[in-house]
Amino acid sequence: MAIVPISPERQRLPKWMKRRLETKTKSAHTNEVLRREGLVTVCEEATCPNRHECYSKNVATFMLMGDTCTRTCTFCDVKTGKKGELPGLDASEPERVARAVGELGLDFVVLTSVNRDDLPGGGAQHFADTIAALRRLNPAGLVEVLTPDFCGDWQALQVVIDAAPDVYNHNLETIPRLYRAVRPQARYDRSLELLRRVKQANPRIWTKSGIMVGLGENDDEIRVLMEDLRANGVDIFTVGQYLRPSLKHHDILRFVSPEQFDRYREWGEELGFAYVASGPYVRSSYFAEEVLKGALDLRKLRAAQSPA
Predict the structure, then answer these.
(1) pTM tops 0.90, yes or no
(2) Which domain holds residue 131?
(3) Is 87 exposed, middle or buried (0-12, 13-18, 19+ CB in 10 A)?
(4) Which of 9, 11, 117, 168 has its CA 20 to 30 A from that of 199?
(5) Burial (CB count within 10 angstroms: exposed 0-12, middle 13-18, buried 19+), residue 274
(6) What are the pLDDT digits (tens) for 239-291?
(7) C-alpha dihedral, 62 to 66 to 70 to 76, nearest 10°
(8) Could you tell me if 112 and 283 are in contact, meaning their C-beta atoms sit under 8 angstroms apart?
(9) Cβ count within 10 A of residue 146
């Protein structure tokens, strides 16, 4: 069994991690809409440090299938539950998400979920149903999904691919050496295969993956991980600083400097990613619409610079 590093004290944040937070009053409208529709967001459940900033812009990442996960990742603040003890899915959720999106005025929506390894297909059809509800609301709107690995059920994966999200995100979270300690129910190679299968099945879908730094990896391992992602056709890469949700979670083993985050971005450009979002407060869904626009702009720029 892997040993998870846990200390009884919180680490002090370095100066580059300190910033002015948005006031909660600016995010009141988003909170009101979410509460009215009975929706869950990863922003809140995973204690995202960017929540008030995003909510103040009427932006939220919707977390489907409840607030309880069947996995026990040591970095995550989402609560866990045992298989067989979790409730079934609420068939009204896709329409409730669509109503909330309409009220918030969003043209770009990010959908994620807890892992529901207890469900047939891991809840893939629920993703597809929600995408369909959003498309009925706004056919021109863009949808990004951030899905689990569906335990390698590739038929379930195909259900989501067939729903044709514009961006398919699946996070590696960390380097393979740390999986037993950080993501004990996940498999690095399985996650890479999922991303490869998405791109092979529908090359028009942008593929995306991200990691956190500060869990015990080194920069050479991050470089190899980035190479693995590019070898499997991933277009967009995100990397941010891991921040410990509570004293029960995995320690922060290093704070990466802004200069090193800049180097990660440079590595990604060298490797040919369409876009790299790299910085201390970057999260996989943070400013996701701007990240996709950046990828599109960079692709156009590279095409213009290429010899005829």
Answers:
(1) yes
(2) 23-305
(3) exposed
(4) 117
(5) buried
(6) 999 998 888 889 999 999 999 999 999 999 999 999 999 999 998 877 777 88
(7) 50
(8) no
(9) 24
Sign of CA dihedral 154, 155, 160, 164: positive
Which tokens belong to 5? 């590093």
* Whether the Cβ atoms of residue 113 and residue 128 lie closer than 8 Å to each other: no
Cβ neighbours of residue 186 closer than 8 Å, sequence gap 6 or more: 71, 73, 149, 173, 179
The pairing of strands 167-169 and 142-146 is parallel
- The secondary structure of residue 63, as a DSSP letter, is E
Structure-block tokens of residue 158: 């195909």
Q: What is the pLDDT of residues 116-151, one digit of tens each?
A: 999 999 999 999 999 999 999 999 999 999 999 999
Q: Does residue 227 lie within any of the structural domains?
A: yes
Domain count, the chain: 1
DSSP state at residue 41: B
Element counts in the chain: helices (H) and strands (E): 11, 9
Beta strands in the chain (DSSP E): 61-64, 68-69, 79-80, 108-113, 142-146, 167-169, 206-213, 236-241, 275-278
Residue 3 within a domain: no
Q: Is position 76 within any domain?
A: yes
- φ/ψ of 62, rounded to 5, equals -75, 130
